[in-house]
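re: that complex we talked abt at group meeting.

here r the seqs, copy pasted straight from the sheet so there may be weird spacing, ignore it
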Amino acid sequence: MNRDCGMGMHVENRGIHVGEIRVTAVASSSVLLVGDTETILCSSVFDTPPESLIVGPWVPLAPEG
Amino acid sequence: MAGEGRRTSVVDTLRLDALAAASSLVVGDLERFDARSRALAVQRQVPVFLENEGDLRAFPLFSRPIPLPGPEPEERVRLTSANVSPCISAGNIRVLSAVASSLVQVGSVTRVELESRVKHIRQFVDQTSP
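got the structure back, here u go
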């Protein structure tokens, strides 16, 4: 395929000034950035399945060694 | 003059109270930033926790591969940018906390890769069992 037929995008970064930024939490693979970037890849796995509710006698979780 | 590449970041004040679990506050430019964090979040009716508990290898969640976007298509979007203004700026930044593979940065970074895995477990004592 002729590469000249692809899509082009041009960005002009003019003056930007944000007065105030208030954030409660940046959490679980998140980014707060004042600047330029090319690639950001964030993954977050969060698991609370039904079997994670354990009712029974107190037992330690997966002891090491 | 319109420049190429990275702009200069300008911030008047930055206040960050808590930074934890593979998170960073960066002032300046980076080529690459990677962070990984894994956690067991255990809530117990009887709050007793042993030192050698929680071998993460026992939970598939922590080793399961995460599906990522495939390779870029051959014909990608041609992105060009012109920095008419050489600066990107903010006045006051107030952040309470940055946790679990997070990044707070004043400056530029070419590539960021973050991964966080959390497994929640709640344990209750069964009063009816012998």
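couple things i noticed - Residues 21-47 of chain A form one domain. Chain A has a mean pLDDT of 86.
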